[in-house]
């Protein structure tokens, strides 16, 4: 990033060659250096867009974003907004002829108002940074995607990110009260409100959440903060099979217990972490509660039914260790394709079992980790070695998993979104009428089709 | 309703006179009897639409709704969807040339799936009936608008209804997972999902929630149910002034306590209920928690700071009695205009105090009840006697209250919606860019402008 060329000098021959005179004229810092482009053209999906973007803009202010989008509209240049690039769907991958709008530099926490229970942030704020800043006031930002130390609030909002504790505290959507959005032509739109409640007009805020940068660019967000719990209890229970573990998570709900998180690891995952765990059980359920000791004791009692062993701890880390080791362990076996489906909670065990059948059918290894509290499964397909082409068998297994999700009354994405990779599956899930309406909504906000084209729909 | 004319007989002279041959041909039960029309042309806002609707349709099935909307599109007949007619904004008032679509007959709870934590209902189900049905499974439907014994789920969803316990458990929006919607031309759209989590495509579900019947007609909803709490504790604390009461509600948040409800009654309200209460204090804060006894004790301790008196009870009814008496007591003083604004929680005391100034300026009586947990105030303006014209002073006081909400960084409606009465205030709050986008969204779904025209925007 040595070559920011944001001064107002006349367009150079190289800018002209790249067709970026307009970007140079905005005065917004930008670069067309190959290494800068290379570091910002992909996300974590493994999807390779055709060609490379022409340049990367580094806005520092709302005015910068407006200038870039105005220039992009005038020149019909596709713009790919980007936070940390942690999307797993191709949503932030940028192809030929586009300009990447890197919002990671707009990373100020503008305001934390403890008495109001809200924070106002720029889109490039790292999710965990906001959570830590809120903690200083006895509050927290509840949504906690696994990427929270890397990913940005803007990206979280653009994908309606989930996480572990959304079982109790909701997904990103539930935390967003209002936003400032730069529209495709550079106009600045304010949506929502600064209050905890409000119903004035259509819910534009909700429409932008999860729209993957295809309707507008988030330049600030007003977010709900919640009280930090006084204490948590964590329970790890091993079961002889995944059916018992899934049944235990349903039993919690039937016992009127709302856990903060309920993470299920199947046998293939346990084997990947440590084959020695097989002696402990074939499925692990990790549950956290943040109520009183009676709630924790009640939860442990419920989980004990059918369990091989149950451990309870006030320190969550030892018991969450296996969960945190899941992805790194699977990555040691090869490159994981991180899939993401959700099913009605009662179908969780059936889903895990049938994913095992799919793995056998295609002769691929699939390890499944699930947010059991809300029926959200992440089957991790071990797809060859890192850097090698993705085997056809892994792709076919993925397709079978999406078909399974729909067959069980679920959805092809619980929390990662559509991006590029799941567009055909969105079409199957939503159907032609819904998809047509969504395209018409896109046209209202982005009539020129320059905002992250080819994504989300 | 003695004259359902839903059989397929040829259109009569009276139908022809009303221009309703098309409705008769649908085979859907309907009536054009004056008393039937009279009982369904108004809501509870006091707003009188110009003229009367031509008829009322009583659909029993999704196919009925589709037939009515198809016929309405063909004949360009405005359709006003209606649940129980409890709107306070004119949203369900129907004027000249329109047909009322009375959905109260579609009132079946189609499914309750405790293991999945969801219910599927028709739009005419009474909110409290669903909550009671869920309770049989140890669950509840959390949103609890004050009208819950009268109002329907369809109406709740169409207005994104709030309530008391949404301070902790969210508003209607947070409970709606998916819907079936009949579009303006009669097509049937499915939105959302049956799972607790899902992010496939734009959030059409959220767009329909709160759209007041202007984008489509809800014919079923898949709703999230939550565990019933094991026990609740209710605390009533009297304070010497409203500032202390509001400060106490903020102190709860700062003590990391998330009450289920936190209701504030100002002095004017207490005077209306019983002038003798003045000796207890000038403001009453009623708080309910549903955690453990330690949480309740902690909440009581926090509320004690600055309080004149504090009472705690495991039986909520005696302490909630004053809250429940507020509206009936004020109604004995005259016809209340029930206003509805929300402000940042830290501005609550200032809002109540300045509403008192507004009351004095216009020489009207205003009693304010607030959902203090989320900064949502209901100033009840005593506007002359029941049935008399609304005094100009009351209207001007209302306008000053809406302007105050905006000045304090709030919204002109926390939970009642826009309807007809607040359209000009929506325009001020949202601004021309947002309003233009909202009109364009309306045009996507209702290009002929026949769905509840003149409402919500």
TrEMBL record, chains A, B:
Pfam families (alphabetical): FAD-oxidase_C (PF02913), FAD_binding_4 (PF01565)
Signal peptide: none
Keywords: FAD, Flavoprotein, Oxidoreductase
Listed InterPro entries: FAD-bd_oxidored_4_C, FAD-bd_PCMH, FAD-bd_PCMH-like_sf, FAD-bd_PCMH_sub2, FAD-linked_Oxase-like_C, FAD-linked_OxidoTrans_Type4, Oxid_FAD_bind_N, Vanillyl_alc_oxidase_C-sub2
Cofactor(s) the protein requires to work: FAD
Top-rank lineage group of the source organism: Bacteria
GO molecular function: FAD binding; oxidoreductase activity
Annotated ranges, domain FAD-binding PCMH-type: 49-228
Protein name: FAD-linked oxidase
């Amino acid at each position: 990033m040595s070559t920011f060329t944001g001064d107002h000098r006349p367009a150079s021959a190289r800018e002209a060659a790249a067709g970026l005179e307009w970007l140079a004229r905005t005065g917004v810092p930008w670069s067309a250096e190959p290494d800068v482009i290379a570091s910002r053209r992909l996300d974590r999906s493994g999807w390779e867009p055709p060609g490379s973007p022409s340049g990367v803009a580094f806005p520092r202010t709302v005015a910068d974003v407006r200038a870039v989008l105005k220039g992009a509209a005038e020149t019909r240049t596709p713009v790919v907004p980007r936070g940390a690039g942690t999307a797993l769907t191709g949503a932030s991958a940028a192809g030929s002829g586009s300009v990447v709008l890197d919002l990671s530099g707009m990373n100020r926490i503008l305001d934390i108002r403890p008495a109001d229970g809200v924070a106002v942030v720029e889109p490039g704020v790292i999710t965990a940074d906001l959570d830590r800043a809120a903690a200083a006031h006895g509050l927290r930002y509840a949504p906690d995607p696994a990427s929270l130390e890397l990913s940005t609030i803007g990206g979280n909002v653009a994908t309606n990110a989930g996480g572990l504790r959304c079982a109790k505290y909701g997904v990103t959507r539930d935390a967003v009260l209002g936003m400032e959005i730069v529209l495709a032509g550079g106009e600045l739109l304010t949506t929502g409100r600064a209050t905890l409640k409000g119903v004035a007009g259509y819910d534009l805020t909700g429409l932008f959440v999860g729209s993957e940068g295809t309707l507008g660019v988030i330049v600030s967000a007003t977010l709900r903060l919640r009280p930090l719990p006084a204490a948590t209890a964590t329970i790890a229970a091993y079961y002889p099979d995944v059916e018992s573990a899934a049944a235990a998570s349903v039993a919690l709900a039937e016992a009127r217990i709302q856990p903060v998180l309920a993470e299920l690891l199947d046998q293939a995952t346990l084997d990947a972490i440590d084959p020695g765990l097989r002696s402990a059980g074939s499925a692990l359920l990790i549950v956290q509660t943040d109520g009183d000791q009676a709630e924790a004791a009640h939860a442990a009692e419920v989980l004990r039914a059918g369990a091989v062993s149950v451990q309870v701890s006030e320190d969550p880390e030892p018991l969450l260790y296996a969960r945190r080791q899941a992805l790194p362990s699977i990555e040691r076996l090869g490159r994981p394709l991180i899939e993401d489906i959700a099913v009605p909670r009662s179908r969780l065990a059936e889903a895990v079992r049938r994913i095992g059948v799919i793995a056998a059918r295609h002769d691929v290894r699939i390890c499944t980790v699930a947010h059991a509290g809300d029926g959200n499964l992440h089957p991790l397909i071990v797809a060859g070695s890192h850097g090698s082409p993705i085997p056809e068998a892994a792709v076919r297994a993925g397709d079978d998993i999406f078909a399974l999700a729909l067959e069980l009354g679920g959805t092809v994405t619980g929390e990662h979104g559509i991006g590029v990779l799941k567009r055909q599956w969105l079409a199957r899930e939503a159907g032609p009428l819904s998809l047509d309406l969504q395209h018409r909504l896109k046209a209202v906000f982005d009539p020129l089709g320059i905002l992250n084209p080819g994504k989300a729909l």
